[in-house]
Amino acid sequence: MKIYAEKRHSMPYYLSSISRICFPALLALFYLNTTAIAKDVDREIELLRQKLEQQNQRIEELEKEQSGIKSDNSIRSFLTVGGRVQFDALYNRPSVGGPGGGNSGDLSVWPGAVPLDSSGERGQFNFHGRDSRIWLKSRIPTIEGYLASLIEVDFWGSSGNEKISNSHNIRLRHAYLEIGQLTMGQTNSTFHGTGNPDTFVLPATDVFARQPQIRFTQAFQSGDFRIALEQAETTLTNTSGIQLTPDDDRYPDIASRLTLRGDWGEASLSGLFREIRSDGALVAGVEDHVWGYGLYASGRLNTFGVDNLRLGIAYGDAIGRYVAGNTYNDGAIDSQGQIKLQTIVNAHISYQHWWSDNIRSNLAYAYVHADNDLNIVPATVDKEAYSLHMNIIFTTVDNVLYGMEYVHAERELENGQDGELDRVQFRMRYDF
What we know:
The protein is mainly beta. It is built from one helix and 21 strands. The protein has one helix spanning 13-66; strands spanning 78-93, 124-128, 133-142, 145-154, 171-179, 182-188, 210-220, 223-230, 236-237, 243-244, 253-262, 265-279, 287-302, 308-316, 331-333, 339-341, 344-356, 359-370, 382-397, 400-413, 418-431. A 16-stranded antiparallel barrel has the order 1-3-4-5-6-7-8-11-12-13-14-17-18-19-20-21. A four-stranded mixed beta sheet has the order 10-9-15-16, with no helix packed on it.
């Protein structure tokens, strides 16, 4: 039996020597190359990390600058300036008359300025720019939120003459601070409502007062609630029909407003609670005071397209100086120094129609009536008044408004005497 042995093929000697030398060299070279690549990758990662940290730091600095707080914790105040330049041309028939520049009844509409019977001038043409305004706003970030402020002035201060310079003086409109939910300073009363008519001048019966106050506002998803302590000022009619301002008020007026907003429009309900007081204003040593109230419901309801209906009604026995330019006082004071309040009802309705995106018209009607006590006051006091407004307004140029308005107003005294006013007014305004 033959046994065959496996034949082995041996590597030549010189090849075996080369392999023993090159293979470790190749391993060493591969190791060194891999280590270098790893170091390069680590270096790139470190550079990327540093760049990412720099970017994050820059983003943080930009966010701080955006909020007004620099990285050194200093505070940056944001200040803006704005206002409007307004020109009005009016023709009144009849005119309230009076010295040129001082007859503001020819420039606004309030019942007490409507001439009675034929007592006014036949007519008067008037130019003025007193409704031009300037305002300054500031905003400073704090840990409690932004501290904001507003100062606004116009030129309805003491009147200048119309002979040479028409130098009407500056008048303070608004000056208040806001931080968080708190407002302190002078601004429009919280008793104001929403949906005021879009007219050139306030209707003869407008609910309006601007005064110092401390207001708290609580906002919620569909509106807000506000309550405020506001400047008190009693106005009374004496037995001669003259207005008295005793300046004896002990407590601030309390005003509140609840506002709701939605796709349908907005609506508000305002409340007012006041002390009406006199301490010797008519009879020395005689003090009397009564508490009164007021309610005001108002709103703006969307109708067709962007058209809307605006309406409001105010009622109360202490709203005299809050409506119709204080033509009607808060109450009457008799010859013994005793106060009796009078009920006043005030209402308006207005429809706004948009002819196009930059042309609109408004038709507005407003009415006011006072329940005077004729056992105390004379029959020469105002009983009721109304005003009718029709206009067309163009906004075809950015920040520019111009248009025409017609106004008819009437008032009647308790004795039946009455008067009326007709006005045509052109306006151009530029807001900056």
